[in-house]
Amino acid sequence: MVTFCTLHAAQRLNLFVSKSVDLKTVMLFGILNGISIGFLNLSLGFNSIGFYQMTKLAIIPFTVLLETIFLKKQFSSKIKFALFLLLVGVGIASITDLQLNFVGTILSLLAIITTCVGQILTNTIQKKLNVSSTQLLYQSAPFQAAILFVSGPVVDQMLTKQNVFAYKYSPVVLAFIILSCLIAVSVNFSTFLVIGKTSPVTYQVLGHLKTCLVLGFGYTLLHDPFTGRNILGILIAVFGMGLYSYFCTEDNKKKQLAGDLPLASQVKDKDSLPLLAGKNVGNQNEENHETNKLSKDSVI
């Protein structure tokens, strides 16, 4: 709700222009994102830290699988290898224990599915409907907040036998809640921006970079235990991230060159035509004109 109110104030100050999106689309999208957050939190609550980290790692290959099947997106073998190195590195650095239980496993699977679908839709909706990350977040935030506000207290009551509204909120607690909400605004905005401008897979890669940074800052600032295994895992993960970035850049350059080649060849052919005059040239131009007209009509 703080995210929506912040964006509403920004919109009133003309910092961005609101763009309406189909109500059904934005409602289902917002609810799906809210459910995804709920399942991720429940997965963390019912599983060990190690298994939760495995859940986060599984989001990347599942996203690649969904985009390949449903969006026909192609991932080169080099990019897949870089992602494999990244996952291995993060796994070595962060996974400590794997305690399995049936409920936790089901919740983790649901968290993976809803998170992947939600992030793919974040990218797809922005491109298909030609809306910016800010416009989409502004439209969907109320529905995301609504589903969490309705379901959160009920689920908490069932699991902990405590009412979240019965807690005595001290000024210090309220101050940290407000700080958390303000930070969440930037997190939500950056999430939609990164996914919209790049891809869900790239966003997940950045998320694992965050994991490496958390481990590093934990050791540097909080003096958390740090072993050779952590260092090895982080180095492998960072190397995988570097390869992923390099291979993605190379693929983008190839796509741009492939898109420029047809236009360049057309210009070259046009420039190489001899300057001839006569009836035959005139007839040839007319035929070319008719051919271009037919081609244009067939495209339409």
From TrEMBL:
Record field: compositional bias (Basic and acidic residues): 286-300
Subcellular location: Membrane
Region (Disordered): 278-300
Transmembrane domains' residue ranges: 21-44, 81-100, 106-124, 174-195, 228-247
UniProt cross-references to InterPro entries, sorted A to Z: Sugar_P_trans_dom, TPT_transporter
Membrane topology: Multi-pass membrane protein
Keywords: Membrane, Transmembrane, Transmembrane helix
Keyword Membrane (UniProt): yes
Domain of life: Eukaryota
Domain Sugar phosphate transporter: 20-245
Keyword Transmembrane tagged: yes
Pfam families for the chain: TPT (PF03151)
Gene Ontology cellular component terms for the protein in this record: membrane
Record's protein name: UDP-xylose transporter 1 isoform F
